[in-house]
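Researcher: Please predict.
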Amino acid sequence: MDRGKDVFVTALWRPVLALLAFALLALSPARAQSTHIQPKLVAESAAPAPGGATTLALTMTPDKGWHGYWINGGDAGFGLSVEWNLPEGVTVAPFRYPVPEPLILFGMMNHVYEHPYALLADVQIDQSIAPGTDLTLSGVANWLACTDKVCVPEKAVISVALKAGDGAVPAASRTRFDGWRALLPQPLDRSGTWERRGDTVRFAIPLPAGSALDAPYIFIETQNLVDYVAPQRFSRNGDFLIVETRAKGEATGPVAALLKLGDGRGLSVHLEPGAVPAAGEAIAGMTDAIDLGLFWAALGGAILGGLILNLMPCVFPILSLKALSLARSGGDARSAKVEALAYTAGAIVTALLLGAALLALRAAGEQVGWAFQLQHPVSVLALLILALAITLNLLGTYDLPSFGGGQALVDKGGAAGGFWTGALAAFVATPCSGPLLGAALGATLVLPAWAALPIFGGLGLGLALPFLAVGFVPALRNRLPKPGPWMDRFRKWMALPMGLTALALGWLLWRQLGSGSQLIWPIVAVAMALVLLTHYGAMQRGDRRSWLLIAAGLLFVVSLGSTVTEVADTERTTAASGSTFSPDALAKARATGKPVFVYFTADWCLSCKANEAGAINREAVQDAFDAVGVVTLVGDWTNGDPVITRTLTEHGRNSVPLYLWYAPGAAKPDILPQILTPGMLTEQAGG
């Protein structure tokens, strides 16, 4: 076929394809209207000159509450791609993106546009194109549209009519395109350097000392290099801007990035591997500012969640101690206020210390979450011995000034007892994650440390509010029963829930250690504590013939321990017979096209166990699940698991329980409430 014939055929079929594209749009109005981000392709010049170029703009207009993504969407999301249908002799460069905004959702960083934006691309016209040739461009664009709850992959046919001409650009068109160009990052004329030091990635960006910076932020285009949600630290070292953040991935070689300067301005940065100067004078970046709405909502949720925590079964045994202490005060205003303040101080200080330890461990790269201390057997053993000591004290086995008599030490003992009771309540309450508390503690994942700590303090305050109210509101205090002989009986009854707590901690320790040989030393430690406390009580009563009873008790404990070690492995095997959660298991389960129910639990989480017994494992629920083929996956966080911790973080949580329901074909799961009912689960299953 000769050249003239080729040109004739090309001139014929290109307009036909363009007309077909327009027909597709015209015949599919419902599809076009169903997108949540409306695309439109426009050209700066409708008559680009042969041998010249023009610029295309793909304008994207999100619906209210929706957003699109930068070329690197961050932890979630992806940029736009186009499958072009181009005339011969026409080439289109990759789209250039305007400066995005960082957006944290459910503990994940997103690089987004929440307002109308335009992507720009240069179009080159070959010199051989004859003037008047139809150069209509068309293609299929694919992008992701999201809200704070759901994401939808979208696509549309885009097209713009062009004809080879003189390259004239109307003034209005030039003004509009100049406005879009001003929003693009400007290329930095020099390359910077980057290096990895342990878990930290450091960047040196050549930027003159006089350059204006307003809450800078760096977007890394290169994948698998940084933890996007991690805080970014900016400092100035002469004519270099130093950026430090947490590493994530194994990327090597040159790095492409975008430095946001503020007010929509940005710089495209090229970084080569190399030495980075030391950090200098600190500069406040975007991650140093906080979302005040998020902070106040999280603080309020933590206080209310801590208040509700008083009703959870894991806290009740400790509340019994405080109830006894308040009853002993006999309504005395001064004693009640002192104990209330001391109890509040103990709860808040303990919550702050636990929160600070959690933040420090996460900053060091550890994958830990709330109640991390109960994932370690040594901590559980210490709590077990403490619960045993309190149980024996309440039974009258021995006396301590903070729990028993000693009129001269009442004032001093009341404050000390109140403080340590509050501290113990906060410490034992950490396995629970009741209503409002999960989301509130999840916010600490995305807030800077100085803003996250008050959230943990709010939990302690909420936990202490009932006793603070009793201490300072006379009407409530006057309703307390008067001191009398009943208090001794009440004290012994309160040993029951504390004893049950000790048994629960023993069961947890058994579950954590798993094998008989590992249980030997914990059993010896508990037996020694029992011997020493019992002997101490006997000495207080002047009874020096208690060794026989002590020896019998010790033999009983050791015998019980040997029985436990024999059945421990069997018990763990039985408990682990369900489907275990992993990212691969979840992917395979979702690929079946059936509903998937994933729940994250721990043996030390009493609210988790209550949900399992009262809802998940109920016969009616399991029958409803079987009827529709629900696949259930269980993530056991008892001993800690970095994979589960990351999954909790991805869904804005740093504690259990977490319940996820994946409907067939859904892009994201529904997060179910932290208190489940059988009706709620059967409804999810369509029962």
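Model: The first helix runs from residue 3 to 27.
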